[in-house]
């Protein structure tokens, strides 16, 4: 999926937003999404933040665990750190009111 959209590198937040839009189409239709990184050699944090962690603004952890599968990523350690930071951000009482804390 990612290779078909981005090629062998997933670098920018703009590219991540393209992937996130594709993911959101399926999630909003009630479906499950498999995000396959096979063939992608370089993945930067900006891309992951825009594509994956930004989903936590609209979707809670339980929903994403059930409906989003990520495969082919050479290492998921950094992605897990980004997700953890995102959850902490949205759980913070000082987050602006436009952020839906109930989705965590």
Give the topology, please.
Elements: H1 2-6, E1 9-10, H2 13-28, E2 33-36, E3 42-43, H3 45-51, H4 61-67, E4 68-71, H5 77-91
Parallel strand pairs: 1-3, 2-4
Q: Main traits of this protein?
A:
104 residues, mainly alpha, two-stranded parallel sheet, two-stranded parallel ribbon, 4 strands, 12% strand, globular
What would you say this structure looks like, in words?
The chain contains five helices and four strands; from the N terminus they run αβαββααβα. It is mainly alpha-helical. The protein has one domain (2-103). The protein has a two-stranded parallel sheet with strand order 1-3. A two-stranded parallel sheet has the order 2-4. The relative contact order is 0.18. The model has no long low-confidence stretch (mean pLDDT 85).
User: Would you count the extended β strands for me?
Assistant: 4
Number of H- or I-type helical stretches? 5
**Helix content class:** 40-55%
| Average pLDDT rating | 85
Number of domains: 1
Structural class: mainly alpha
Oligomer: single chain
Q: How large is the radius of gyration?
A: 13 Å
Q: Assign an overall shape.
A: globular
What is the string of SSEs from the N terminus onward? HEHEEHHEH
Strand proportion, as a percent range, falls in 5-15%
């Amino acid at each position: 999926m990612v290779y078909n959209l981005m090629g062998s590198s997933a670098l920018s937040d703009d590219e991540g937003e393209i992937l996130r839009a594709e993911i959101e189409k399926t999630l909003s239709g009630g479906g499950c999404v498999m995000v396959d990184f096979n063939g992608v050699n370089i993945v930067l944090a900006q891309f992951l933040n825009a594509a994956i962690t930004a989903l936590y603004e609209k979707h809670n952890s339980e929903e994403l665990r059930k409906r989003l599968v990520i495969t082919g990523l050479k290492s998921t350690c950094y992605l897990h750190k980004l997700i953890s930071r995102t959850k902490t951000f949205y759980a913070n009482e000082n987050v602006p009111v436009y952020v839906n804390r109930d989705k965590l």
